[in-house]
Amino acid sequence: MEYFVGVDVGTGSARAGIFNFKGELLSTARQDITIYREGTDIVEQSSDNIWQAICESIKSALSSAKVSADQIKGIGFDATCSLVVLDKHEQPLTVSSSGDNSRNIIVWMDQRATDQAIRINQTGHQVLKYVGGKISPEMQTPKLLWLKENMPAVYSKVGHLFDLTDYLTWRATGDLSRSRCTVTCKWTYMSHENNWDASYFHEIGLSDLTENDFSIIGSNVLDAGTALGVGLTVAAAVDLGLVAGTPVAVGLIDAHAGGIGTVGAFSPNLSLKNRMAYIFGTSACTMSSSTQQAFVPGVWGPYYSAMVPGLWLSEGGQSAAGEAISHLLKLHPFYEKAKNEANESNYSLPNYLLNLIEKKGIPTSEIIYLAKKIIVVPEFLGNRAPFSDPNTRAIISGLDLDLSINGLIALYIAGIVGLGYGLKQIIKVQVENGVCTDTVVISGGAGQSSIIKQLLADSAGITIVGSNTQEPVLLGSAMLGAVASGAYSSLTSAMKEMSSLGDVFEPIRGVISQHHVNCFKIFEALQSAAKIEPILNQVKNEV
Q1: Residue 107 near residue 196, CB atoms below 8 Å
Q2: What is the distance between the alpha carbons of residues 375 and 112, in angstroms, rounded to a whole number?
Q3: CB atoms within 10 A of CB 361
Q4: Model-level pTM?
C-alpha cells in the first residue's frame, strides 16, 4: 500500500495526517507550538520549535496508522503565511526585541508593520492592484520594511527570507525554490507575468531585495505540487522518521491547502462552478477561483495559479475568526466557570457550548434567537475584506445583565453570526465585480459543527457544504505529496479523486431570514461606527 503525508502548521500547532490513494484518512497527530506575544501587536514564533513539532507529529501519526516509513511515497506541507528570517549562514536570526535568535518568525497576525503598510499604500504602485488595492500589514513586504527601519543591525545580517511553507520545504530538501502560492499572495510576485516587479521594491525602500535576481526572497518560483530537488535529505529524513529521497512537494499557505482539499471535491448534486472555499480557523479565509481576472476592491488578488493551476484566485476573509470568538467569550463574566466545566467534561469551551445548545432541542435555524438582541462586529484585528482596514475594531451591541451561562451562549451565537455577516459582505462585493459564488465549502477546525454551518448559511444567505473528510486542510497537503510522487498527474486530478463533499446546509427562508436581514442592517451600521481612524484623525486635527 502507498500512503501520503500531509503536514499543516497552523497558528497554535503543527499537525500531520496519513492518507491513502483515495484520500481516506488513517491517522492524525498534533503538537503545540510556542507563541511569543508582546502587547497587542507583536506575535513571534521559532522555526526550530515548529520543525521539532512537525517531526513529533509525523512520527506519532505513522505509529498510530501502523504505517512504515517506506510506505510513504510523498509529503506535502502547508503553513500560515508567517515570515521566517535566517542569517547568511542559514541559521535563525532574531526578529525580536529580546534578541533571542530562536524567535525568528514574525507571525502572520502580527500588526507591527501597520504604519509601513499605510506608507506603501500611499505610493499607489501598480502591484497594489493585485492585492485588492491596499496591502495588508499581514503581508511580507510591510514586515520587511519594518525590520529594515527598526532593526537595521539584524536586517544587515539577513541571508534568506521565507514564507513559512517555503522554509519547511527548504529544510526538508535543501531546495530554495518558492511556492507560486506564497510569493504571489503575500510577497507581490506577479504570477501572471512570471516575475517580480523591481520598481515596487525600489519605490518602497527595499531595493536590496532585488539583488542577485531576488535570491534572498526567491529567484525560482514553482507550482504547488511540483517535486522538489531529490526529495528528503538524509538529515531531514532522520528528523522526520521517513526515508531519504521521499518526494516532497512545493507547498501552499494553510488556507489554500484547505481550498485544494475541498473545492474540487466530487458531489452528485452540486456543480464544480462558483464554489468558494471558507477556511474557518484562527482567522477565516475565503478562496474563489475564476477563469478571468477580476479586480475586487478590498479582496486580495487576482492571483494567477496561486491555488488551482490555471485559474485566478480572489482571496478574502476575516483577520480574526476562531481567535475572535475565543476572545469574545473571555469578555463574559461566566467565562471562567464555563471553561472549568468544559475542561471537566473534556471539551473545548466552544464545543461545550455547542453541546449545551444541542441539548435544548431547538430547530437549528431558531438558535439565532438565543442571541437575543446582541449584535457583534468581531473585528478585533481590523477588517481584512472587503474594506481592507486594519484600524477598525470590534463592537458589541445589545448587552443585558445576564451573567449566567445563557448570557455566554448568547454572546457566542452572536459572534458566529457576526462572522456570517462578514462573509455575506465579501460574497456581495465579489459578485458585484464578476466573481460569482452560489456555494461555500467550509473547512477548518472552528467550522465542523452542523450548528455553526447552519448559522453561517442563514446569516450569509448562501448554501454551506461540509467535506466528507475530517481534515480537509491536511488532505490538501497530502494531495500535494501525491502529485509530487507521480501518483496523480496533476493537482486538479488529485482534487477530484481524493475528496468528496458532505452534508448541505441551505439558508432558511421566511421569518428567520427576515430577522437576519434586519440584524445585518444593524451590523453594518455598527461596523461604520467602529471605523476609528477618521475619528482619531479629526480629534488630532482639532487638538
Answers
A1: no
A2: 29
A3: 6
A4: 0.90
Q: What is residue 380's three-state secondary structure?
A: coil
User: Contact, 465 vs 501, CB < 8 A?
Assistant: yes
The CA distance from 19 to 25, in Å, is 5
Cell numbers standing for residue 430 = 465579489
Q: How much is the pLDDT for 151?
A: 98
Among 267-276, 450-459, 511-520, which stretch is predicted with the lowest mean pLDDT?
267-276
Q: What is the CA radius of gyration of the chain?
A: 22
What residue ranges define each of the domains in the chain, with the CATH number in brackets?
3-253 (3.30.420.40), 322-425+514-542 (1.20.58.2240)
Distance from C-alpha of 532 to C-alpha of 541, rounded to nearest angstrom? 14
List the grid coordinates of 82. 508567517
Asked if 493 and 481 touch (Cβ cutoff 8 Å), the reply is no
Q: What average pLDDT score do residues 365-374 get?
A: 98
At residue 78, what are phi and psi to the nearest 5 degrees? Answer: -135, 160
Q: List the grid coordinates of 418.
A: 457576526
Q: Which three cell numbers stand for residue 427?
A: 460574497
Of the candidates 465, 449, 468, 467, the one whose C-alpha atom is nearest the C-alpha of residue 358 is 449
Distance CA 101, CA 406 (A): 46
Give 78-132 as a DSSP string. EE---EEEEETTS-B---STT--TT--EE-TT--TTHHHHHHHHHH--GGGGGBT
Alpha-carbon gap, residue 511 to 463, rounded angstroms = 18
Spatial separation of the C-alpha atoms in residues 457 and 317, rounded to whole Å: 16
Contact predicate 508/362, CB 8 Å: no
Cα-Cα end-to-end distance for the chain: 72
Residue with cell 535563525: 92
Of residues 414, 412, 468, the one with CA closest to residue 443: 468
Among candidates 438, 460, 425, which has minimal Cα distance to 263? 438
Query: What cell was used for 323?
Result: 481567535
Backbone dihedral angles phi then psi of residue 104, each to the nearest 5 degrees: -115, 15
Contact 443, 262 (CB under 8 A): yes
Q: At what angle do helices 450-460 and 405-432 cross, to 10 degrees?
A: 50
Say whether 81 sits in a helix, a strand or coil: coil
Distance from the Cα of residue 23 to its chain's centroid: 22
CB of 279 closer than 8 Å to CB of 80: no
Across the chain, mean pLDDT equals: 94
Length of the chain (residues): 543
Q: Which range among 26-30, 118-122, 501-505 shows the weakest confidence by mean pLDDT?
A: 501-505
- Return the SS3 of 288: strand
pLDDT band with cut points at 50, 70 and 90 for residue 230: very high
User: What are the φ/ψ torsions at residue 390 (nearest 5 degrees)?
Assistant: -75, -10
* C-alpha separations of 404 from 108, 324, 335, 348 in Å: 35, 21, 9, 18
Q: CB–CB of 175/246 below 8 Å?
A: no
- Going by C-alpha positions, the residue among 244, 282, 238, 312 that lies closest to residue 110 is 282
